[in-house]
């Protein structure tokens, strides 16, 4: 049980698999955590939605439970903050209530809008303001799709939120939007850091301007817990609530990414790799540029929906696992370690919800034979995810020098053989961050600054930093993985070209 004289920071991280409420002390120690499954709804091919009321209620449930488990009283909470997936559309109506499901960043229904804008030159004309092209994950495409296909819902929108800004709104009643998360939506001019009506008009959604909330930095207090939220979550009315964070920024801050010396990679439900710099990459070689939590810096980002989240599907299908069965991870790690890289030539494409190359790509094993076992299939899954991250990091390295190491976070870091595989595939040392909730830690760091507990992010990072485990590549297997990586890339490229014909797109 926690001491009743301490203050704590409460962070709720909304990931693609779980919602986790975490209590963190001012030294960065994780005091307690409560989590529940974050149910994504897939009613149609390409759809990936959330029930907005269920999302809010589950966040409140996690908060109540972590307070109960730890014995921390509501009076000890210095600040509350949310982290959430970036992009997507989380709308409310004039009364501040949900009226449709949220369309998440994993949803691909609107991908043709991005293709059309590339074909007709719209994306090229806007690139000098955005330094990225609109994709199905971003509100620009989703809102254009809603206007054309669900005009009644489109007209009902009062506020267009990201996931964490929707939760902040439910907690405080205040409509705000984080600069970091908004700058990745294709609705914000990266040169000015402000909404741009030319962008909205070019996408055919000019009326959305009045639906976009005022932007704030991650280190600002944006409101207080209101009475109706207090009744649901157990926090005191008036508890300060910070702006919260885009989950990628949150994890990067928690990893200590406060200068351009390192590259980070997050292998979670989705995969993200990136670094920060004082200017965006403007040559078109990078998928995403956005404003970072440190004013004056940009997040240079390569992402993919194909990452460690594929393992969760594999466990459900091949192992019929129960959600509470954590022992299964030790079992599958042993199975993966039982085979050397040379003992399996299976290729696993982890594109279960599409890829950054094509939102209609599909996943699967290539090369199955009767002698293959679940161990062979699992090793291929681990390798496939590592290879996808290597592709993303390779693109980043086109614009910067090779780093001394790669910092790694996400669910894959809980697996020693998986981290070792990343080091071997990348042929770089990997610093695996501690087995703690990095998204929650990043939010806590910014919340501590918002609450005036630390003067700035750099000071807070130093005071709350997490230990990291250094894993070196093994020279004896690096060439084997390099050969397998080339095979993976060849198979993936060929399959990306086949899917449109296969699916009659």
UniProtKB/TrEMBL annotation:
Keyword Kinase tagged: yes
Residues annotated as domain Carbohydrate kinase FGGY C-terminal: 266-451
Pfam family, one: FGGY_N
Keyword match Repressor: no
InterPro entries xref list: ATPase_NBD (IPR043129), Carb_kinase_FGGY (IPR000577), Carb_kinase_FGGY_CS (IPR018483), FGGY_C (IPR018485), FGGY_Carb_Kinase (IPR050406), FGGY_N (IPR018484)
GO molecular function, one term: phosphotransferase activity, alcohol group as acceptor
Domain of life: Bacteria
Stretches assigned to the Carbohydrate kinase FGGY N-terminal domain: 9-253
Keywords: Kinase, Transferase
An individual GO BP term: carbohydrate metabolic process
PROSITE patterns linked: FGGY_KINASES_2
PANTHER family: L-XYLULOSE_3-KETO-L-GULONATE KINASE, SUGAR KINASE
Assigned protein family: Belongs to the FGGY kinase family.
Name of the protein this chain belongs to: Carbohydrate kinase
Upper classification of the organism: Bacteria, Bacillati, Bacillota, Clostridia, Candidatus Pullichristensenella
